[in-house]
Amino acid sequence: MTGGLEKPRISFFFPACNEEETVEELALRADRVLRKVTSEYEIIIVDDGSTDRTGEIADRLALENRRIRVIRHPQNRGYGSALRSGFTGAKLDLIFYTDGDLQFDVAELPRLIPLIGEADIVSAYKIRRMDSWERKIVSWVYNTSLRLFFGLPFQDVNCGFKLYRREVFDTIELKSTRGLIDAEVLLKARKAGYKIVQIGVTHFKRREGGSRYRVREIVMTIVQMFELWRDIHRK
Fold first, then answer.
1. CB-based burial of residue 72 (10 Å sphere; 0-12 exposed, 13-18 middle, 19+ buried)?
2. Which of 37, 159, 197, 231 is most buried, by CB atoms within 10 Å?
3. What is the pTM of this model?
4. Domain hosting residue 128, numbered range
């Protein structure tokens, strides 16, 4: 399927919380890319409790295109929960996810497909991070902590541009509800014997506003990190 003989079947999803400015453009871009590189595909928009027009736009897109569907959280559950809903809802052989804010170019997805022929997960990293100094510092501390405490040797663990074989999610159990979800997937997949490869991708500045790190979110992520450590090392 992914060794160059046939085009793959891909479930493409992205979480969206108050992304009315980007949700339609991202879905349409994904549709253009996927129709060229797959034999079958679906596009899933995970509306994580949006309070703007994100849900309305997503519903319209689903009515206009049978390959688009919406998973809706009535209330915001957090990034990790949104990804878990996407992983669970995906139906096809390969699962790809990216963030809903257009900081990545989905036209780079075809570069990941050949790599999945020899691996189970393709985890991207930002070649040049186009974030604020605050996000860069927090990301450096976070990734360094993962290397020190978990021996996780990957760059930019939380990069929202990854391709997986769906069987990975039939094997591992996910618990994270926040940003630790990416680390949890990689750690548990590695423990289960799955092969993970990396590739650099382009990163763009966020168009509107910007995500802010709140003290409560940082504290909760640290708490979940300790819980994940216990979970990983439990016999």
1. middle
2. 159
3. 0.87
4. 9-233
